[in-house]
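Milestone M4 deliverable, item 7.
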Amino acid sequence: MKPDERLAELVENSARFDDEAWKAWAQCLSPTERLAYIRKHRSHFRFTDYDEVIAVVRGRRFTGCSSQLLRWRDRIRARTLQSALLFLVAVWLGIIWLAVRLIR
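Output delivered:
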């Protein structure tokens, strides 16, 4: 792969990450959750003035680190899926236990 092609691919991937991060920021988090995320990950954000802070908290802009936000979102999704699966296993075990008790 030529250096120019590699650079074009990196720019395209970066733009895709930025778009996906902005969608996750705007659509998946409430203003309270956004503010908590900003407080916890302050070093990932760049603010020039107070208006920009307000726009970011309200979900109109995203100035943070895209890869960090997407990694955080994926961890949350994995934990949620794991919790849901554990709940389903517990429910099925309860149903099986109840069926065995009723059969005896």
